[in-house]
């Protein structure tokens, strides 16, 4: 089966920054068991429709001409439409060949919209892996319902160590150093900072050896890269601060301006510029209503999560706001 859906081994240089999107997904297949606990999203086909032909017909109809737009009608962020379309094209390929394909690491908005679109396809199942339970950037393994019996190993981890005691480095420093080797952003998952010890990085397996050889400095700090098992990843729940605000309504501009402690007029301006997102999707209306569980992010200001909401005696809303530090 693997031979039917993969090509020859791809060298690291072909999957650097100038790699084409078609080459991106032609990696050798790995089907060994993955024993660590990870976040998974599964999309099951309709149990009453077990016919491979029916599933293929559904996909052909979905992708014929521009009709794939039916699958992505709900995508608000036009900047990610092409990324979602590529994922759907991969799903079409996996279904037609009764095989399995793997995406690169997807940013949260692309992952979210791709999952929603994949739910509409017959005979397709997808598993999201980020390397650890709280991962934001994940890879999708998309397969025909008959093709995959185990969770494939499609992520590896590297430890980047050096003397960071006197010269601490930020997330951007590590990311910039890795991209400086020529590796494209979509080949990298999350970067877990470890303070004086350095950082741990999630990466596609095909580039592990390349990065171990090419990575020698972060900022002004000399570093060493070594492969580590996923079970050795050191991560912790994000640090948060919780407080309450009382508002006359649950409008985005009212609650978020209080949460970020910025004026409502400034927040309105940020919304108009497309810098405000709810659950990873951009919003353009100030009056969008928030609800418990919504994640609000503002470029340059971080993220907030809406917690419990209660009515006050005066008819206002007491909103619990969880701020990510």
From TrEMBL:
Annotated SUPFAM superfamilies: Alpha-L RNA-binding motif
Molecular function in Gene Ontology: RNA binding
InterPro entries: Nucleotide-bd_a/b_plait_sf, PSII_S4, RqcP2_RBD, S4_RNA-bd, S4_RNA-bd_sf
Keywords: RNA-binding
Superkingdom of this protein's organism: Eukaryota
CDD domains referenced in this protein's UniProt entry, alphabetically: S4
Protein name as it appears in the record: RNA-binding S4 domain-containing protein
UniProt organism field: Papaver nudicaule (Iceland poppy)
């Amino acid at each position: 089966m693997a031979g039917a859906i993969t090509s020859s081994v791809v060298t690291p240089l072909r999957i650097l920054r100038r790699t084409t999107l078609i080459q991106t997904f032609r990696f050798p297949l790995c089907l060994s068991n993955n024993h660590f606990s990870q976040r998974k999203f599964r999309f099951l086909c309709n149990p009453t429709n077990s016919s491979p032909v029916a599933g293929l017909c559904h996909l052909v109809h979905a992708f014929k001409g521009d009709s794939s737009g039916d699958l992505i009608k709900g995508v608000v962020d036009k900047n990610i439409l092409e990324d979602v379309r590529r994922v759907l094209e991969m799903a079409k390929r996996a279904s037609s060949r009764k095989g399995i394909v793997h995406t690169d690491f997807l940013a949260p908005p692309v992952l979210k919209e791709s999952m929603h679109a994949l739910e509409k396809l017959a005979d397709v199942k997808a598993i999201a892996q980020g390397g650890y339970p709280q991962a934001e950037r994940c890879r999708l393994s998309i397969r025909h319902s008959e093709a995959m019996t185990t969770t494939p190993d499609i992520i590896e981890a590297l430890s980047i160590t050096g003397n960071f005691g006197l010269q601490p480095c930020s997330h951007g420093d590590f990311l910039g150093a890795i991209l400086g080797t020529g590796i494209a952003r979509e080949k990298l998952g999350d970067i877990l900072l470890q303070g004086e010890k350095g950082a741990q990085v999630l990466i596609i397996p095909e580039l592990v050896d390349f990065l171990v050889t090419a990575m020698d400095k972060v900022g002004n700090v000399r570093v060493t890269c070594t492969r580590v098992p996923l079970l050795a990843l050191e991560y912790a729940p994000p640090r948060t601060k919780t407080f309450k605000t009382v508002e006359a309504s649950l409008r985005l501009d009212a609650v978020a301006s209080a949460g970020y402690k910025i004026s409502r007029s400034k927040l309105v301006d940020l919304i108009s510029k497309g810098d405000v997102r709810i659950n990873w999707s951009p919003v353009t209306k100030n009056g969008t209503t928030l609800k418990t569980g919504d994640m609000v992010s503002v470029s340059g200001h971080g993220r907030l999560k809406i917690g419990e909401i209660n009515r006050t005696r005066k008819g206002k809303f007491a909103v619990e706001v969880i701020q990510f530090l």
